[in-house]
Design brief:
Layout: E1 4-8, H1 30-38, H2 42-48, H3 51-54, H4 57-77, E2 84-87, H5 91-98, H6 104-121, E3 127-133, H7 137-151, E4 155-162, E5 165-171, H8 172-184, E6 189-192, H9 205-215, E7 227-228, E8 235-236, H10 239-249, H11 256-265, E9 270-274, H12 279-287, E10 292-296, H13 299-312
Parallel strand pairs: 1-2, 1-9, 9-10
Antiparallel strand pairs: 3-5, 3-6, 4-5, 7-8
């Protein structure tokens, strides 16, 4: 029997025109509804750009959440149900909407605020992130700890994405030094990322404290579909635990590889990426080449999976 996980991408997957072909029929006003919730013209940024404005943290976050939820609504309305949901960083909020924990109306506002808080936590240019290729977590952890101690600055592992790919985060200088040390320790490459801050590092703790105050003001419900939490790589259902983990997520590593292994252990064999791009599907394949993945971002990809779903009903 086919067992399905919905995956929701995080920052970096946004692109101008995202989800445009899916704004039809009952879904035609979905982006405009988001505009009213965030009190500015987010939909025009999403559909027309400019790209540099869409990429700003506080625009990219509500844009990706809105598109991810739109895709998930298309799927569930067509009868495709998830057994689990998971998001990468920001994507965890779309997963929580799909699992019934957050109302879309609350989620789009909280991720916009989350983006503002993250942007304010560390001034632009002071923090950054980099992808380290072909160095295991134990070796890289030793490198980041050594550099942090030596410099008295923050650098730590931020995204444990898949075998051979770990992202580090911290102050600009500490990340640069850690990149050089990682290559000396055997990393194949160290690639600076085009991001506006040191996400998932201790430098985000001031933003996390303020985010908790925002989350305290909205109602979280018990999940009707288990969500795999970024911080623990384990399924969560209870609202109190989910809120705690959302706060910790801002300054803790995203354990994506562990999360995919957890889903595989629960029998998930089909992963559906809800939103623009194919980043998460690619990471899943690096964890398990036998896993079936789909990327839903336009009318053609939606129709492909709806056709495939007819066979699932006979499993």
């Amino acid at each position: 029997m086919t067992k399905i996980a919905f995956l929701f991408p995080g920052q970096g997957s946004q692109k101008v025109g995202m989800g445009a072909e899916l704004l039809t029929g009952d879904y035609a006003s979905f982006y405009k509804d988001a505009d009213e919730l965030v009190h500015y013209d987010l939909s025009t940024l999403m559909l027309e750009g400019p790209e540099d404005q869409l990429t700003l943290t506080y625009n990219a976050q509500p844009a990706l959440l809105t598109t991810g939820v739109l895709v998930a609504k298309h799927l569930t309305d067509a009868g495709i149900k998830a057994d689990f949901t998971i998001g990468h960083s920001l994507g965890e909020y779309a997963a929580l909407v799909a699992s019934g924990v957050l109302r879309f109306e609350d989620a789009v506002q909280i991720v916009h605020k989350r983006g503002v808080l993250m942007n304010e936590a560390v001034p632009a240019g002071e923090g950054t992130m980099a992808a380290i290729l072909a160095l295991d977590s134990e070796q890289l952890g030793a490198v980041t700890e050594e550099v942090s101690t030596e410099l008295g600055e923050v650098v730590q592992m931020a995204n444990l994405n898949c075998p051979g790919q770990i992202v580090i985060s911290g102050t600009k200088h500490a990340v640069e030094v850690a990149c050089e040390r990682a290559k000396e320790a055997g990393a194949r490459r160290a690639l600076p990322l085009n991001v506006s801050g040191p996400f998932h590092s201790a430098l985000m703790k001031p933003a996390a404290e303020r985010l908790k105050a925002e989350l305290d003001e909205i109602e979280l419900h018990e999940a009707n579909i288990p969500v795999i939490a970024n911080v623990t790589a384990k399924p969560v259902i209870q609202p109190s635990e989910i809120e705690t983990l959302l706060v910790e997520q801002l300054y803790s590593p995203v354990r994506f590889e562990e999360s995919i292994r957890e889903l595989l252990a629960h029998g998930v064999d089909t992963f559906i990426e809800c939103g623009p791009g194919k980043v998460l599907s690619g990471l899943v394949k690096k964890v398990d080449r036998k896993a079936t993945t789909y990327c839903i971002y336009d009318e053609a990809s939606l129709q492909d999976i709806l056709e495939q779903a007819k066979e699932w009903s006979h499993d």
